[in-house]
Amino acid sequence: MPTPLVLIAGGGIGGLATALTLHQIGVPCVVYEAVGELKPLGVGINLQPNAVRELNDLGISDTELGTIGLPAREWALVGLNGKDIYSEPRGLEAGYQWPQYAVHRGELQMLLYRHVVERLGADAVRPGQRVTGYRNTGDGVAATIRHTDGSTSEVEGTLLIGADGLHSAVRAQMHPDQPGIQWGGAIMWRGTSPGVPIRSGASFVGFGTHKHRFVFYPISAPDPETGIATINWIAEVTVDNSSGWTSGDWNRQVELGEFLHHFEGWTYDWLDVPALLKGAERIYEYPMIDRDPVPTWQDGNVALLGDAAHVMYPTGSNGASQAIVDARVLGACMVERGIGRQALARYDALLCKEISQLVLRNRGAGPFGLLNLVDERCGGEFDDIDTVVSPAERAEFMARYKAAAGFAMEKLNNAAPTIAPGARAVFEAA
Q1: Is the pLDDT of residue 122 over 50?
Q2: What mean pLDDT do residues 8-29 have?
Q3: CA-based nearest residue to 155, from 170, 139, 141, 171
Q4: Cα angle, residue 144 at apex, residues 342 and 28 outer, rounded to 5°
């Protein structure tokens, strides 16, 4: 029996979490990454407790996560008049057995990369090599690799995991007739600025309306002397999208003057939005995009994972978390079914339909749907939120979302590990 080898397309968070998971269960793998050099790009993201649990089970400690971010303590929605709509504790303070972290996306990727190199060896991640296609070969798969010099080669393996992101070549071949990228009209401007954390000191705060809002949270502990932390922020407006996304760039750097006017006057005794925006060294513009779900993530010996499978609106703060969970579920399926297409079929059956529903739920504003409700009923201005949306209605709304996103507290706390300690995969299931 030949030695199995899993090929992974993409060295992002999902691909690297897959490599660490496969190594943990004794499966050789290689990661092919399109960029020539991995760098800590991006801004802040949230790691939900379900993903932190999986990282802990991979041997990545809270101490390490604390070097790239901050444990979240609160999640809050605020109306246009600055009054609370809803708030709840998060992470350990909510009763989870694992914290929730607000981290820098690029620093998380580099942390995972360092662990892959340390455990699997420097040759386990091959930069400057993009997977552009594949062919199933019966008992395996052959992937086409395009190198930075323009040349191509072919590598063979047992399985191919397409973790190659939004513009996935693996997904494009698996679903050649899929619709294009879906843009609902929302434009996000993202950056980080120095600022003093508010409320709990580690609060995720969203306020405004569904079509005009501002989100911010700290991703570092405050300086002991100045009290200043790094604040990640997202400024968002929704415009007419009938002409499609016309800038030609999916993450271009922009000047503040291009959008500051949307947030003039957003000044409160607890937050000065224009001042926070002006503190950013760099600002990036992104359309809020996703893709319509596909009916399956599997094609023979090939499977999709992470954004390649389910790129979603960032309204639920669970895109990166779900990519990590994908990797762990995939590993568990290999332990159960063997290193082959049976494992991929089981993985597809467990996640594809369920997470496709989450993609559509996030498109409908995810947990920010409460802002929609308040906007519809009172235009975002109110004296007593309980007369607009009752406490019971608010609690039920959030409970439904958490259940759909896989981090309902009681269920998560009582769940067995996704992969049992010491579990190993075999080439074929018994």
Answers
A1: yes
A2: 98
A3: 141
A4: 50
Q: What is the mean pLDDT of the chain?
A: 91
Query: Whose CA is closest to 141, among 156, 129, 154?
Result: 156
What is the token pair recorded at 40? 């800590």
- 362: Cα within 13 Å, side-chain hemisphere: 29
3-state secondary structure of 43: coil
Q: Distance (Å, rounded) from C-alpha 226 to C-alpha 222? A: 8
Helix 319-337 / helix 341-363 crossing angle, nearest 10 deg: 160
Closest to 115 measured CA to CA, from 68, 157, 147: 68
Give pLDDT, residue 430: 39
Distance, CA of 347 to CA of 305 (rounded, Å)? 10
* Sign of torsion over alpha carbons 380, 383, 387, 392: positive
**In angstroms, rounded to a whole number, what is the distance separating the alpha carbons of residues 110 and 37?**
11
395 contact partners, CB below 8 Å, separation of at least 6: none
> Which pair of structure tokens corresponds to residue 279?
């503190």
pLDDT tens, position by position, 312-336:
877 666 789 999 999 999 999 999 9
Given a contact cutoff of 8 angstroms between Cβ atoms, the answer to whether 85 and 385 are in contact is yes
Q: Is 211 exposed, middle or buried (0-12, 13-18, 19+ CB in 10 A)?
A: middle
Sort strands 129-136 and 74-78 into parallel, antiparallel or unpaired. Answer: unpaired
Which amino acid is residue 396, in one-letter code? E
Query: ∠ CA 131-135-141 to the nearest 5 degrees?
Result: 85
Length of the chain: 430
Q: How many CB atoms lie within 10 A of CB 233?
A: 23
pTM above 0.90, yes or no: yes
Return the percent helix, strand and coil in the chain, to nearest 5.
35, 25, 35
Q: Which of 201, 199, 195 is nearest to 228 (CA)?
A: 195
Residue 346: which of 272, 296, 306, 399 has the closest Cα? 296
> In what order do the strands lie in the sheet containing 298-299?
125-127, 29-33, 6-9, 159-162, 302-304, 298-299
Rounded to the nearest 5 degrees, what angle is found at the Cα of 407, between the Cα atoms of 70 and 7? 85
The pLDDT assigned to 405 comes to 64
